[in-house]
Amino acid sequence: MNRIFTSLVMLGVPLTVAGSLLHWSSISMFIICSVTVIAISSFMGRATESIAIVSGPRIGGLLNATFGNAVELIISIFALKAGLIGVVLASLTGSVLGNLLLVGGLSFFLGGLKFKRQKFSIHDARHNSGLLVFAVIVAFVIPEIFSMSMNETKTLQLSVGISVIMIVLYLAGLFLKLVTHRGVYAHSEEGSVTEHEEPEWSKKKALTILVLATLAVAYVSESLVHTFEAVGEQFGWSELFIGVIIVAIVGNAAEHSSAILMAMKNKMDVAVEIAIGSTLQIAMFVAPLLVIISLFMPTAMPLVFTVPELVAMATAVLLTISVSSDGESNWFEGLTLLAAYLIMGIGFYLL
Amino acid sequence: MNRIFTSLVMLGVPLTVAGSLLHWSSISMFIICSVTVIAISSFMGRATESIAIVSGPRIGGLLNATFGNAVELIISIFALKAGLIGVVLASLTGSVLGNLLLVGGLSFFLGGLKFKRQKFSIHDARHNSGLLVFAVIVAFVIPEIFSMSMNETKTLQLSVGISVIMIVLYLAGLFLKLVTHRGVYAHSEEGSVTEHEEPEWSKKKALTILVLATLAVAYVSESLVHTFEAVGEQFGWSELFIGVIIVAIVGNAAEHSSAILMAMKNKMDVAVEIAIGSTLQIAMFVAPLLVIISLFMPTAMPLVFTVPELVAMATAVLLTISVSSDGESNWFEGLTLLAAYLIMGIGFYLL
Amino acid sequence: MNRIFTSLVMLGVPLTVAGSLLHWSSISMFIICSVTVIAISSFMGRATESIAIVSGPRIGGLLNATFGNAVELIISIFALKAGLIGVVLASLTGSVLGNLLLVGGLSFFLGGLKFKRQKFSIHDARHNSGLLVFAVIVAFVIPEIFSMSMNETKTLQLSVGISVIMIVLYLAGLFLKLVTHRGVYAHSEEGSVTEHEEPEWSKKKALTILVLATLAVAYVSESLVHTFEAVGEQFGWSELFIGVIIVAIVGNAAEHSSAILMAMKNKMDVAVEIAIGSTLQIAMFVAPLLVIISLFMPTAMPLVFTVPELVAMATAVLLTISVSSDGESNWFEGLTLLAAYLIMGIGFYLL
């Protein structure tokens, strides 16, 4: 399996370069790039696993989320430069929905098919729940509602204020997890579970591969993004659907493959940390950072989503919390998350 | 007590037949039918109890919910045929509110007056919470919001898509509960509680009575429904109030009497399974089934409730979850649910 | 420290009297009164602590909430008399937000800086969660949504109906806590924690001080309130911002100082009881009481908040519940609540 992925990467990257120079047709580029992204993502999954074995699920999950979201951040900055504010907000929405419902759902479902009951840290789940409610239900909803009776300047001031608060809180949360409360909530089981397992790669090698794979994914993703418009036209996809669903699926391929890999090895702590941790990073760090960056761009981006986007995110958060609050999962809970994703997908498709 | 109910049924059914043939006044028919329905429902309660003793709380609760909701399904199909889409959606709303707040509230309250703390399975409560959020907060809210900027055809497509997904997920949930995870979450206490208790009726007899009682309830309910308009006019009740409150109280009489009976015997697992299980069956099976059936009717019914209906259901779900999530109840939690029902009742009355 | 506060009270109260007679400038009165209120509040904190040691956290928290909210009730009645319905609703909103997010947040944050993990009763937290959802999500949201298609008379009827139900339920909740279920949920740890501690003041003395301090706070608060308009003009604060943020901070100074004092002594049960108990008293008792009182005033007040007020309260409740449901807190959870308060504060400032 690993060999196949290695060959696909060796083949896919040069083909992407060739295709973008020779202006191949959008459909063929779409297929080449998609396969390549997925193949490269498998390397990111293996690197994360190696790091998680050495450094624990939190650092592993954090690194995976960071490198995964780095790709999105880069693409979004290019989109901001082009003034495509609607696309940026749509792809942020898509990342939140994709990570919570699709990555989370597939992890619970596929992991649950192998293991009847899978457990993960209740303390982390609750820490994350509080932040999900803060980020999506408070920090995204307030500007939406309040801006309805505000002019543009005030809406932007509110957005910037909220963005600064969110970034500070996100960094404080990392500080809590990794410094002041490191190990405070460690469960006794954790020790017993980690039978001495050998990482596939050394920490240094794994990190190097993670960086290289991120760069490669970023490059190929960009080519992929350029095919969307033409592919969308041929398949009859609206811009919103492409932003929320297609961009999000491709842009989060790294999180997908890592989380599912972990779930199928019954390492649910890492899987959940990737799915929810990545969502939190998008909502509390990437989104506000883009608002602040947009101030130096031709068009400033307020933190105001469309109503369907906001409702989809808020209901996804409530569903995720009610499904994950008990620190346990099974295939059916995964199916529930996937069903919600499908419903929203149909909704955005028809919109 | 049981003898009184038997006499009431023996008297009430023939009177209903006579009354509908001889066109008695609406008020007298309203009283006769209401009493008869309640009397028949007591048989459904006793049958459920017998089955629950033999087959466990889940099967017992499921059978009760199914036979209880069968009545509603039949009446709703007749209403769809007559093109009364608003009435069907109102009575679905009423069933959700009635089961969660009225049946649940009365069970907690009356059970709680007898026992200080009543416990029920936390695992079932959480499984149900996830599905309640899925059904009402995701699957009912999304079409409401998204359809605001959609034409009728697309709204209907979205409704049908969501309906199919809900039915599949509902069946998968039953599969999980009754097949793959049967007994996985069984608590050690459960065994100790079930002191060897003798069922009143054999399984076969209980099932027969359940079927016969359902048919009788369906017949009498139909006569009852025809009195609503006249009674409503005399009492000054709006159509929405009749649909949401009156139809729901009568239509769920079976669930009421069974659940309360169980709660007062401290069998909270069955009582909760009836109240919440019946809600889930309405929201995830009966409602979507009616959407699909309506496609073959003169007027198709989209899954779009009025805003007050949706807000009432969504807040009822949030309240139920926050009250039941700890696997414990007392009379005050019952009173809280009843107070919420009363508030909504006043709201729909004044609307 | 206590001596400083004693001197400040001895100095501040006469100065306030002098200032209001001699018509000193608003800014100087604003500063004098604010300092005096905070100094008096410290006495209320100490009195509460003495009572809590003798009577337990529930009675202590209840008394503190009652005396704290008595001030607000008195001021609101004066405002109702003047027909300032918008100001009353805004200050009710501010009390809910201030108690949940500011008092709760500061308690968690400052307590958490001293103690890594602080615990409080899960049963009380869940009892309170259910009531918060009932009060804010059901009883405040329903009239908001339903009144959109109602005339004024019906809106007022709905408001009065809901108000009566809320007051009855609130009293029933006290009855449960203090009579029928007193000690039912007492945790075994509680006994061990209460090392024999000597109260600073006797119960009688503490109660006397509580009453006197409340009267003094009420007097000084009134003078303070009269400075708001002028101060607001000078600082460019809108009426809504003054009502929701400034009035609430000053009006809840007693709760602030008591709760934080308790949190820093690791008595989180009392701190949480003050923060959430006070919110519940405002939402379920003070607000409905004001609706009923307003019937005898020139202008009746319906229970209909503005949309930003309602959304702020509802999201604050969801955040509080998700942060406090595990019966544990740390400095980061406090910071999350404070961040939410700050976001809403910016929002109301810009509105």
Description of the molecule:
3 copies of one chain form a homotrimer. Chain A contains 13 helices and 2 strands; from the N terminus they run ααααβααααααααβα. Chain A has helices at 2-22, 26-55, 57-81, 85-114, 122-146, 152-180, 188-193, 203-235, 239-251, 253-264, 268-294, 307-324, 331-350, and strands at 118-119, 328-329. The first copy, chain A, is globular and about 60 Å long. The A-C interface holds A 122-123, 126-127, 129-134, 137-139, 141-143, 145-146, 148-150, 154, 157-158, 161-162, 165-166, 168-169, 172-173, 176, 180-181, 184, 321 and C 116-117, 307-308, 311-312, 315-316, 318-319, 322-323, 325-326, 330-333, 335-336, 339-340, 342-344, 346-347, 350-351.
Give a summary of the structure in a few sentences.
The structure is a homotrimer of 351-residue chains. The first copy, chain A, is built from 13 helices and two strands; from the N terminus they run ααααβααααααααβα.
Distance N to C terminus of chain A: 39 Å
The CATH homology group name of chain A: NCX, central ion-binding region
- Count of beta strands of chain A: 2
> Most extensive interface, residues per chain?
A-B, 29 and 37 residues
Compressed to H and E, one letter per element, the order of chain A equals: HHHHEHHHHHHHHEH
Count of the domains of chain A? 1
Mean pLDDT of chain A: 86
Helical content band of chain A: over 70%
Shape of chain A: globular
Number of helices of chain A: 13
Radius of gyration of chain A: 20 Å
Main β-sheet of chain A, in a few words? Answer: 2 strands, antiparallel
Structural class of chain A: mainly alpha
Question: What's the CATH architecture of chain A?
Answer: Up-down Bundle
Model regions low in confidence, pLDDT < 50 over at least 5 residues of chain A: 187-194
